[in-house]
From TrEMBL:
GO molecular function: acid-amino acid ligase activity
Residues annotated as transmembrane: 136-155
Keywords per UniProt: Membrane, Transmembrane, Transmembrane helix
Cellular-component GO terms for this entry: cytoplasm
Record-given protein name: Putative GH3 family protein
Key word Transmembrane helix present: yes
InterPro entries on file: GH3
Length: 164
């Protein structure tokens, strides 16, 4: 971070507030980008989306599903299948949920796009916390903000498993 903390905080918050003013447009753009990035994914192809990236086709073709519906696809990834099964970009990690729903842990796939979005969320969160919390002022030029601790274990398929 080359700029000072106040400049960084101001810049991130201004950018977030600009895009928040037209949330519907931004959400449509995000959906289109997700669909474009994942158009080749086997899962979306099997639902009949066939490369279409408009919200109407998405609503028409993609049903609401639960995790058990995705388990066969996730298992193939865990078994080492590197094809575009659920996403266009390779799955690089699997997070294991805490198991509070239905009493059983579930694998949650991660890829580069998910990690980029998570980093962006942390930047925005940090900026707002820095703006409104005096405890963040102690850092002045560095932020060490840890929401959760993950241990990474390699799985046989070359994917890493993230566990708390």
């Amino acid at each position: 971070m080359s700029e000072n903390l106040e400049e960084y905080t101001k810049k991130v918050i201004e950018e977030f507030e600009v895009i928040s003013k037209d949330a519907e447009r931004v959400q449509r753009e995000v959906l289109k980008s997700i669909l474009e990035e994942n158009a080749s994914a086997e899962y979306l192809q099997s639902l009949g989306l066939n490369g279409r990236t408009d919200p109407e086709s998405f609503k028409e073709c993609v049903p609401l599903v639960t995790h058990p519906d995705l388990v066969p696809y996730i298992q193939r990834i865990l078994d080492g299948d590197k094809s575009s099964i659920l996403t266009g970009k390779p799955i690089t990690a699997m997070s294991l949920s805490s198991g509070t729903t239905q009493g059983k842990s579930k694998y949650i796939p991660w890829n580069e796009t998910y990690m980029d979005g998570l980093k962006e969320m942390f930047h925005i969160s940090f900026a707002y916390r820095n703006r409104y919390s005096t405890s963040f002022l102690l850092f002045q030029s560095h932020c060490y903000f840890l929401l959760l601790f993950l241990c990474f274990y390699p799985l046989g398929s070359g994917i890493v498993e993230a566990q708390r």
